[in-house]
What does this fold into?
Amino acid sequence: MRIAVVGAGVAGLVSAKVLSRAGHEVVVFDRTPDVGGVWSETRRYPGVTTQSPRDTYALSDFPMPKDLPEWPTGEQVQEYLAAYVRHFELGPLLRLNTSVASAEPDDAGWTLNGSDRFDHLIVANGVFSSPSLPSYEGAADFVAAGGRLCSASDFHDASSVEGQHVLVVGYGKSSCDVAMEISRTAASTDVIARQMLWKVPRKIGGVVNFKYLLLTRLGEALFAWQHLEGAEKFLHGRGAPIRRRMLGSVQNVTVKQYRLRELGLLPAGGIENIVRGAIGLVTDGFYEQVEAGRITVRRDRVIKRLLEKDGAPHAELSDGTVLRADTVVCATGYRQEIPFLPESVRARLVDSRGNYRLYRQIHPVDVPRLSFSGYNSSFFSPLSAEVGALWTAALLAGALDLPSDESMRAQVDARIGFMDSATSGHHCHGTKVIPFSMHNIDEILGDVGLDVPRRVRFQQWLGPVDPRSYRRVTRRFEERFGSSR
It folds into this structure.
């Protein structure tokens, strides 16, 4: 087939590699001048690093270089993906600096940008495709007074706010990363946090890497999956006190390690509720800057309006506080958007609440010749995207024994309902599978009829999941479905 892939981030690149090796003609479109998606030079904000450690944020057959730090920077991840392109000779498949303005379906396939014909379309534009910038009252007067309002992904140079009074909106990892970088040189840095969130230390107690807690099958089993089996039944049954003590010990260490109670930054509820919000790592140095007075966290507040006061830009908070605000950086999340698809297609993809109705996070039951890649964002996003690409290749080869359309729709509805309950709706409209990363990977590989050996699965219970252990899975898949290449 001739296949179009929209997006040259991790998901788009691994889809191109897998599908081209399965014998298809693949063309990858991206509007930016470089590969990387969220890691592109055009999108990464100062201080951005991976959430997951180096060895877990990688593709199975292309590990990250050992000389990279444990949490690589955005620039280093982009360089890694560019090296992936060179290694697997994907360069000829790329059309960078090329936006997809339209993708029109017909009975035989898709027409992109009015003239380019394809048999199948893969949407890999990322679940963080468009920044969600709040619409504030008074924004026009604020800008006229010299104020700057932007999203974190459009903020690229921390030195541009040297000596300024800066407000950073949000309390996720990106907002804390940006605030940390800004606080080095800004006159003042205020973080406007609608609610406090639990954050996971990179090293618990300053010693134990968090990957030994959350990036194992045991760590995943601490949170109740849709269908409990084996040890999970024990942990959420008779063994529940053990599970609660495990999470409680991490909570207690975190509170003491960062002096959250003394700083007035203790979140409501227990750390077990971490899946009900944005799971984020602690930004190195953030709480130290708060304690030193270089960062002020305005908790449980939002910006009510922007305004001009005494000829200068300001912001009024929901508690009536008025702050000088030369620059307001909004790290307020993203929207999942696919504007190049016709409204008639989007109506069959998304429910009334905006949830993407995708079987296995990949397959839209009601739209033929269309697949999604990377819409299973997880702790192991590269590996999750990779096994998803294997699933798509098997589907195109007619090698999947899918349930009936009615059954797949029912399973999609049940999964969205479960994730609503498990995460209080914080599943990015059905595109995020955290914290159930390995369950999703297991389901996908189970459909394809491939898996790692039982001993590897056992090792994953006590040690971090290593994408390299899936290299043989990829190799066996290529032997079964690959071309003569």
